[in-house]
Design brief:
It is a single chain. The chain starts with a helix and ends with a helix. With 190 residues, the protein is an all-alpha fold. Helix 1 packs across helix 6. The longest helix has 28 residues. The protein is 70% helix and 0% strand. It has one domain.
């Protein structure tokens, strides 16, 4: 899924009105599994000046990058963190780890040839889904509109739930726009 959708769903499920620490943890947990990708891509493209085709065609699949993705996309590690948070009754940690697990649950079935080793350290196996959230050769033409629709529904839920918080309502609006607008633009381009 696209990162804005992950943030929307993490906030919708684990965010709590009038509990900024928990809400911030939910947003962080929804973002962390993608954060290393943004850092490595940003560094490669904008600091190192590496061509995007190399970044996404070679570096993304390199042993180094995949080693990082194994850690921040591991059901095992996030599941252990979630279990520990439940045991210790740490609401913010439950939101953090829960939102990260939700991120992984949405990503797992939506990556065809660009998935992650979600069960590391037990195995380096990568599930090759028949579906993709971005690759039209693997049903993105169906998946992407569903993702957009679900994101809008969850975004409206957030707005209603957090109506008293201008920050969260505004953030939700930005996330919904970030999720929907590129899809509408690409629909017209193609």
């Amino acid at each position: 899924m696209n990162t804005p959708a992950h943030l929307i769903f993490g906030l919708a499920v684990f965010g709590r009105p009038n509990a900024s620490r928990i809400t911030a943890a939910a947003l962080a947990g929804a973002l962390i599994p993608d954060a290393s990708l943004y850092v490595m891509v940003g560094w490669s493209l904008f600091v190192m000046g590496i061509d995007a085709r190399i970044v996404f065609g070679e570096l993304y699949f390199s042993d180094l990058w995949q080693a990082v993705f194994r850690i921040d996309n591991s059901f095992i590690l996030w599941g252990a963190g979630f279990a520990a948070a439940l045991w210790l009754r740490l609401d913010w940690a439950i939101a953090l780890c829960g939102a990260a697990l939700l991120h992984l649950l949405f990503d797992f079935p939506l990556h065809h040839d660009d998935g992650r080793a979600h069960f590391w350290p037990l195995t380096d196996w990568i599930y090759q889904s028949p579906l993709s959230y971005w690759d039209r050769n693997h049903y993105a033409g169906i998946v992407a509109p569903i993702e957009m629709g679900m994101s809008l529904i969850a975004g409206v839920f957030i707005v209603r739930r957090f109506w008293g918080s201008k920050l969260i309502v505004g953030l939700s609006g930005v996330l919904m726009a970030a999720q929907v607008v590129p899809g509408l633009i690409w629909a017209f381009v193609f």
